[in-house]
Design goal:
Helix content: 55-70%
Shape: elongated
CATH architecture of one domain: Up-down Bundle
Largest sheet: 3 strands, mixed
Strand order of the largest sheet: 2-1-3
Radius of gyration: 45 Å
Number of strands: 3
Length: 687
């Protein structure tokens, strides 16, 4: 019940204080956390555990932000704090004004770095989201290079009689040597460890030993040359893990995982207990001005640094850091045992105020671990900061993640922008072509990524079933991956084409069929190439066309009936028009010498759209006109609407549908009768 409110690190420090008090109470001298013991035996397991199981995707995607916080932020904290503490010392009178600028800068460099042990202890308990966790934890890992450089730099400068510009430039360059040198040493040992694990198939027992041995050798080699041992351990763990896990047995992988977790947990426990014991046993010199100023300026420097750097970083980030995120990053800058051990390493000869520095550092550690560590969980709940979601990765998620990576790489190539995804794709191609063939033994080096991921998922699920006692729930149908692992097949002769074998292809198909999410049945989407014809669609279209043409005809005839008729052409013009286009004026068989007006419904709504076809005087051809013809005058026939495939203009016909009959009655209406004195027949009789 107590650990749900108070972080485990706080409880361990309290235990250390009680143990130290008991030892001192019985008249013995309590043990003090020696710096050599801390740096050589207690710190490496924690850093190796963090580097070996580092979430590489989130780390690489946020590497720029992490580096800015780790490098620029730590430099800002060190110089801001050192400068202000020097000013405080100069203004505080004779008790502090003997502390020089270099000593204050050294103190600022020790106290400015965020501690990875304290961050791990607190952030793993509050289950913060992956982005904030990797930003704060990544900063605490990578700021080691800056801390080591500044610590050794100011320590060396303290022995000089005069510091020149060349010394400052060399100190600046030493930062790149320390950081990049540590990474280089770690990569070398990581490659050696991966190559060694290729030949351990017949001695599985010692496989975990090589992982611990080469990692520790990387750390010691880096520390031997005053390089960053933490950077070397992280690089070694990140490089060796994918190749070592492909080569070693599953039992060895389980041994490495649980031994690293146990080892780091024991080291973390001892560190916090020793912090409590050393607080009781150490020599302290309390100065209110110095201690309170240190604590206050640490908080101010952290907040200002995070606000300014985040304002700059958000200009380049797609996913912006919100004010809540900035608050958690600033509030999560915990100090821990690294600062205590570095201060304990100081020499009394050059730094006579070491006891006061130790007292101030222990005060800052206790404040950050107890106050900030205990209140960060309620604040995360109060601000409703997004928590970490414990979800198992699926085949579906893996496929879509790879697909999006390829898509973004293609977009970057099209744009000509060499960004994060471009270089990641280049590195993956180089890894597939050359590195995996050298560092991974057997068929696993050519195994597609999907099968490798599925194999890992299957093994994990089987172990969980066995551990939970659900062995009877295992399905009877054993997958092809398991069968291949039990009965390995003889490898066929390699084909020249870089294609998958039929077995692998069928295996991937089976994995996809069994593991991809079953989509719901959806309605067929529109595709003009595969659209199935609707039997009723043409009838509906014909009906809509007829309605539309009926409306257009009604509007046209309204215009026609209200506009005066054209004057008749002279006989000469009529003969010329018939001679130029005899088909247009050819008499129809069913006209029986009646003038027929054919109307094009698709033409514009104007009187010119009415063509007079076979317009002849009644009674010509030797036949006298009948009385009905006299009364009817002109007969206008509407073209029948044709199917969409025919030409409405050049294929006239008669329509017998009810709508067409109504239209004929409408069109046969002669309109308003003219005045008697102005009335003239449309075609005079007797011509």
């Amino acid at each position: 019940s107590v650990s749900s409110i108070v972080p485990e690190s706080c409880l361990l420090i309290v235990v250390g204080l009680l143990v130290g008090g008991l030892i001192k109470g019985v008249g013995e001298e309590p043990p003090i956390l020696k710096s050599n013991i801390f740096f050589l035996f207690l710190l490496p397991p924690i850093i190796l555990d963090a580097g070996y199981f580092l979430p590489l995707r989130q780390f690489t995607e946020n590497l720029g932000t992490i580096l800015i916080f780790a490098v620029v932020g730590t430099l800002w904290n060190a110089f801001f704090l050192g400068g202000l503490m020097y000013a405080v010392c100069q203004l505080s009178g004779p008790s502090l004004n003997h502390i020089g600028l270099l000593a204050n800068l050294l103190f600022g460099s020790i106290i400015s770095a965020v501690d990875p042990v304290a961050v791990l202890a607190v952030f793993e308990e509050i289950h913060i989201n992956e982005l904030l966790h990797i930003l704060v934890f990544g900063e605490s890992l990578l700021n080691d290079a800056v801390t080591v450089v500044l610590y050794h730099l100011f320590e060396e400068f303290a022995t000089f009689e005069q510091v020149t510009i060349i010394d400052i430039i060399l100190g600046f360059l030493s930062f790149f040597v320390v950081s990049l040198g540590g990474v280089f040493v770690g990569v070398i040992y990581g490659v050696i460890a991966a190559f060694t694990s290729r030949f351990t198939s017949h001695i599985r027992v010692i496989e975990p030993l090589f992982v611990f041995l080469y990692s520790y050798m990387a750390y010691l080699s880096a520390e031997l040359f005053h390089l960053s041992g933490i950077m070397a351990l992280i690089a070694c763990g990140v490089v060796m893990r994918p190749y070592v896990e492909a080569n070693i047995s599953h039992k060895s992988h389980t041994t490495i995982k649980y031994f690293l977790k146990m080892w780091s947990s024991v080291s973390e426990t001892l560190i916090f207990i020793f912090l409590g014991v050393s607080t009781v046993a150490g020599h302290h010199y309390w100065n209110w001005t110095f201690v309170i100023s240190t604590l206050l300026f640490c908080l101010i420097a952290r907040v200002l640094g995070v606000l300014v750097l985040t304002w700059f970083i958000n200009k380049f980030r797609i996913v912006k850091l919100t004010p809540k995120d900035q608050f958690i990053i600033a509030y999560g800058g915990l100090r821990g045992a690294i600062a205590f051990s570095l201060c304990y390493l100081l020499d009394y000869k050059h730094f006579g105020m070491r006891d006061m520095f130790l007292t101030a550092i222990i005060t800052v550690i206790f404040f950050t671990v107890f106050v900030q560590g205990m209140t960060i969980r309620p604040l995360v709940d109060l601000l409703a900061v997004k928590k970490k979601q414990e979800t198992k990765r699926s085949i579906n998620e893996e496929i879509h993640t790879q697909f999006l990576d390829h898509l973004l790489t293609g977009i970057e190539d099209i744009c000509g922008h060499y960004g994060h995804h471009h270089w990641k794709d280049k590195l993956n191609r180089f890894n597939e072509r050359y590195v995996k063939k050298c560092l991974i033994a057997g068929e696993r080096s050519k195994e597609p990524q999907l099968i490798a991921f599925y194999h890992k998922m299957e093994m994990k699920q089987a172990i969980e079933l066995v551990e939970s006692g659900g062995i009877g729930k295992i399905p009877s149908a054993v997958s092809t991956v398991s069968i291949q692992n039990i009965n390995p097949k003889i490898l066929p002769v390699e084909r020249i084409l870089p294609a998958l074998s039929k077995d692998k292809e069928e295996e991937i198909r089976k994995i996809l069929r069994n593991n991809l999410q079953k989509t719901r049945q959806r309605l067929r989407s529109y595709n003009r190439h595969t659209l199935v014809a609707d039997p009723y669609e043409e009838a509906w279209n014909q009906m809509l066309l007829r309605r539309q043409k009926a409306r257009q005809l009604e509007q046209k005839m309204n215009n026609y009936l209200t506009v005066p008729a054209h004057k008749l052409d002279s006989p000469t013009m009529s003969r010329a028009r018939i001679g130029s286009d005899p088909l247009a004026y050819e008499p129809k068989a069913d006209s029986e010498n009646l003038p027929i007006i054919t109307i094009d419904p698709a033409s514009p709504q104007s009187p010119e759209s009415v063509d007079l076809m076979n317009e002849e005087p009644k009674g010509c051809g030797g036949l006298p006109p009948s009385p009905e013809e006299d009364e009817e005058g002109l007969v206008m026939r509407v073209k029948e609407p044709s199917s969409p495939g025919t030409d409405d203009v050049f294929t006239p016909g008669t329509g017998e549908s009810p709508s067409n009959q109504r239209m004929l009655r409408c069109l046969s209406d002669p309109g308003p009768q003219p005045e008697p004195e102005e009335g003239e027949p449309f075609i005079p009789k007797g011509q």
